[in-house]
Amino acid sequence: MDALTNDEIKLFDELNAGYKSKFEFPFIICVRENKKEAIINGMKARINNSKVQEIDEALKQIFKIAWLRLSDYVSSAKL
């Protein structure tokens, strides 16, 4: 995600603006588990969800992110 073209940045900004306008929070996805094409496709598909569906999906994504970060922390900790 750190090597996007200007066109890709513009597309992400547009998709996220539409998403945020509809759901009142930014698009949330576990980037570590997705490449940019999957993220773009996810943004395009998930905009069609209801707010309840999208809150549920956002919480699932937050759980994945938290789990991966906690797993990294535990595996690097000197116990």
Walk me through this protein's architecture.
It is a single chain. This protein has 79 residues and is an all-alpha fold. The protein has a single domain (6-76), classed as UraD-like (Orthogonal Bundle), CATH 1.10.3330.10. It contains three helices and no strands. The chain has helices at 6-23, 36-46, 51-76. α1 (6-23) runs parallel beside α2 (36-46). The longest helix is centred in the C-terminal third of the chain and has 26 residues, at 51-76. The mean pLDDT is 94.
Write the layout of secondary structure elements.
Elements: H1 6-23, H2 36-46, H3 51-76
Defining key terms:
flat; 0% strand; single chain; 79 residues; mainly alpha; 70% helix; UraD-like
Please name the fourth-level CATH homologous superfamily: Oxo-4-hydroxy-4-carboxy-5-ureidoimidazoline decarboxylase
| Main sheet record | none
SSE order, one letter for each helix or strand: HHH
Low-confidence stretches: none
Give the CATH architecture: Orthogonal Bundle
Helix content: 55-70%
Radius of gyration, Cα only, in angstroms? 15 Å
Class by alpha and beta content: mainly alpha
Please indicate the count of domains. Answer: 1
The span between the termini is 33 Å
CATH class: Mainly Alpha
Number of helical regions: 3
Gross morphology is flat
Question: How many beta-strand segments?
Answer: 0
* Fraction in beta strands: under 5%
| Residue-averaged pLDDT | 94
CATH topology: UraD-like
Summarize the structure in short.
The chain is an all-alpha fold and 79 residues long.
